[in-house]
Amino acid sequence: MSMNNSSNVFLDAAPTHPNRFQVNVINESHESSAAADGNHDPPHYEETSFVDEAHNRLRISFRPGNQELYDNFLQNGETAKTDASFHAYDSHTNTYYLQTFGHNTMDAVPKIDYYRNTGSISGVKMNRPSLYEIHEQLAKNVAVTPGSADRVANGDGMPGEEQSENKEEDPNAGIVKFGWVKGVLVRCMLNIWGVMLFIRLSWIVGEAGIGLGVIVIGLSVVVTTLTGISMSAICTNGVVRGGGAYYLISRSLGPEFGGSIGLIFAFANAVAVAMYVVGFAETVVDLLAESNSIMVDKSNDIRIIGSITVVILLGISVAGMEWEAKAQVILLVILLIAIANFFIGTVIPSNQEKNSRGFFNYQASIFAENFGPSFTEGEGFFSVFAIFFPAATGILAGANISGDLEDPQDAIPRGTMLAIFITTIAYLAVAICVGACVVRDATGNVNDTIISGMNCNGSAACGLGYDFSRCLNQKCPYGLMNNFQVMSMVSGFAPLITAGIFSATLSSALASLVSAPKVFQALCKDNIYKGLHFFAKGYGKNNEPLRGYILTFVIALAFILIAELNVIAPIISNFFLASYALINFSCFHASYAKSPGWRPAYGIYNMWVSLSGAILCCAVMFVINWWAAVITYVIEFFLYIYVTYKKPDVNWGSSTQALSYVSALDNALELTTVEDHVKNFRPQCIVLTGGPMTRPALLDITHAFTKNSGLCICCEVYVGPRKECVKEMNSSMVKKQAWLLKNKIKAFYAAVAADCFRDGVRSLLQASGLGRMKPNTMVIGFKKNWRKAPPAEIENYVGIIHDAFDFEIGVVIVRISQGFDISQVLQVQDELEKLEQERLALEATIKDNESEEGSRGIRGLFKKAGKLNITKQVPKKDSGINTIQSMHVGEFNQRLVEASTQFKKKQGKGTIDVWWLFDDGGLTLLIPYILTLRKKWKDCKLRIYVGGKINRIEEEKIVMASLLSKFRIKFADIHIIGDINIKPNKESWKFFEEMIEPYRLHESCKDLTTAEKLKRETPWKITDSELEAFKEKSYRQVRLNELLQEHSRAANLIVLSLPVARKATISDILYMAWLEILTKNLPPVLLVRGNHKNVLTFYS
């Protein structure tokens, strides 16, 4: 295809080949055509489609004339519908749209519904066609209609699947969702502007001065701003659900951190309700005291008013989030009026009474005098900071109702950061204004004025005509450092400040009363603490946590009645700070893990700044109250340990997982730079279990010497048609690895599909592992049925042993009396489970139909029974035979099941007999030694058997004891066997000959032609010449079995050197006969042969 830069390209000429892929260059500039002619930039291309000449084409360009047409296609990132007949993915109408290609295809176009989580509340998750469905050939009997193909292409279903046309009611209808102003900004401002603004900020300015006071506020804001930035980054890294700080931390750091902080954060919010309500009640009681209207006494009046208040707040919360939001807005208006009232009061000319109390409007002398610190006894910068910092908290008020926000990803960062900015300006303005208007000490006596001739002490008040010098010797009731009601005095209308205090306390209490149940509900829904799942239930369209509201109410009421909040207040502040620290650490950790999934839309963050924020939060915790910080860390630590121990079944893709992967990868790469050393050798096993649940005993014995020390890979080879094998393999990978995890077996599962068993094992031996973490030992079960198996199976079995030796991999063959394969037992269990389910279903059906009468009820019963696929009962005579057969099968299965679990049990006092006949580098000795270190085998002692000369038994025993002591391997006894090479007794040899008789060729008894023919037809049989050539070796295997029967019949386990068959010399059948006779009628046997490289050393 050639392309032309001339103006003709822009014409909508009919294509020469209408069925070919058309590429048309268009002008995307909004400039005039004259300007476009002078532009020599590379051409831009329009969206194209596969179209027929007869169809109309929709050409997408960016000319001014049709820019609006393009904009109509995409609204909020999705294709818009312009009328009832429009379908965004329709490929069979006269118009082709952006997502279509002009022909039927099962391949799906990108669509947001494919990326949703299952159970998503924002939309239904759809499944795109699998790779198998679009890769494999289409079945011949599947008719692809235009509509079905199009639905499949766009994720609406599969061919032949019925699609409901009924329009269901929108599940989100009626749900109240808040924007960033009402949902986040208002809540955060109300929480940050607490009662501290009205009754403590003036005292802080008096103690620290304007300069240090601004630094105190600035340092507090640094902590909250860094936390806000980290929170914004986490919020914009994916969809945020309900749960606030708990959700953010748990999804970033995992359930261990999230579960521990979530519980104490919810509790802190519940107790904070009591703190704020008591603050409100104290103000009310003070007003009652001024008018002599105390009901009982101050303490009990606080309890009474506090209890009534918390009941009213509960009613507002239970009424619904919409009512609560309206109440918050009203409270914010009152608070803003109160703050404005203060600033207005600073410019209203002061009267004589206010002057006597230290207020003189804005004065440069007062500003200069109050600029520096004047700490009283026991106070300092950090003590003042500790008192002020709780006023800066409250930035999580909006995040805590994240589930009730329209767009949490946008609302939380915007609302929180703006709230921090606005409240910071307000705090700084109030601090500076009050410091420039009010002196530190004042008597309140209007007669304390300067009389002519009096000496002035040089203070700002003295210069303004008032003598407050006696405050140097005695405590005065007024001034910044003495009067907590300075803002009321300065304001234009004092009752408005009281209203502001009421608004600040009630709004904070209301926000905490809503936050605690929301966070607690999210925690309970995740079922991290099983006993708390009762509180996960929500009610109504908004899924309100009514049970959580009641629990929060009870906790708050209890602390109001206890009225010992001064003790618990520092702990609550530290709980909040711990949440801030973990939010900062979450942002740092996610960035440090370098996961591709960490890509927040909020780009104004830095991982090291977030880490600094976390460290700063921890430091502030100790500054505020060191013992409260210690208590917080202890509680969090114990909750972390508890959640870690319980291991909740959740997977949130946390940064902890990402960092684990990065660490594992780095460590694996680092290992490759270090040469292997014999001191660090450990058995790293590839275990041919098939499915791990089908041969549990083989896996158990291998796991016994690899657990916590070496690699263990359970391998399975799928043999058969590749298509079916790959499909079965892919579908079972996760299930079988999950089985390993469920049974606490520290092993990996790997599978391959191959044309034959040997090819699959060969692939596994070569490709398994990573870097230095590669298998060095192959573990297989003994082929118990070798005498009934086809010759090809025996060739494959022996062949994998040869292959392992070729790859310099050690071999361990395990034999137990009952065999390993329990797949038939598992199949029977599955069938019994199905029958039990059918029985329960039938009982339920019968119960449902007990109330029905007549034939109608009976017919209904048969119908339901038919649906359950319940078959006819077998006649009695047949069932009797089956019962007898099932009894025998059951007994056999029971023995098999018991044998399959023998290595799971603790081995009693006994021995592990090690027959170290050939030096293979020490693997035959190392494996039993590792076993004795395990809890199940620690009561078993090692007995060592080695070959030797009859006339040198004691000397060789001393030599072996010396070698074992140098290897630092403890043993109970050493036996030197001097009669290994004598002939076995006749009965044993006769048994061996009878065993191999069916597999002998007997070519010496036949003529040459017949013998050659038999060799060609049955090359796997044992020839007379072979048997004669290796008669001594055959004698040895039979004799060894006699010795094993004599010495080790009572051992818990026998570990024996595996004889090696020389390739192309010893037939597979003869080798299997050796292994059979060697291990016959013995306890569990491990035939071990290392790769003849040292695995033991006596050097340090």
Q: Could you say how many structural domains there are in total?
A: 3
Helix/strand class: alpha/beta
**Largest sheet: number of strands, sense, barrel closure:** 10 strands, mixed
The percent range for helix content is 40-55%
- Give the CA-based shape: elongated
CATH architecture descriptor name of the largest domain: Up-down Bundle
Number of helical runs? 37
Rounded radius of gyration (Å): 42 Å
Q: What distinguishing features does this structure have?
A:
1100 residues; alpha/beta; Amino acid/polyamine transporter I; Rossmann fold; 3 domains; 10-stranded mixed β-sheet; two-stranded antiparallel ribbon; 14 strands; 52% helix; disordered N terminus
